[in-house]
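Service request form, structural biology core

Requester: graduate student, group of Dr. S.
Request type: structure prediction, single chain
Budget code: on file
Notes: please return the result as structure tokens.

Sequence provided:
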Amino acid sequence: MAAKKILVVDDTPIECLAMYKELGDEGYEVDTAINGQEALKKAKAKKYDLIFVDLVMPEMDGIQTCQAIKKEVPGPVVILMTGYVYSGLREKEVEFVKAGGEYYCLYKPFMPGELVQVAKKALAKGKRKE
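Core staff response, request fulfilled:
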């Protein structure tokens, strides 16, 4: 069975690297992108099963990235993550779901094992949709 393909989108390279390593160590095939435009380009070129996207990024935020990916490549499960907690976050989560994202929101820093646990749940959910 082929490894599930995951794309990590975060404008902080160290976050991408940490997630790349953790998910890669679990046997997933992982790619990274540092902005929404790069993520969209990669999503068009390769079929990902799961995409983690950061909410706060310059130029194209996580909601806009999700919308663009879902419009061009409707297959992958898209999960929101953020390191910012503020009063308007709940509304942003709702916007993300309306844009086609899954109702998961990972808050950085992640608890040990949380990233892999969410990936497994999301991939299982995505498989049921097929």
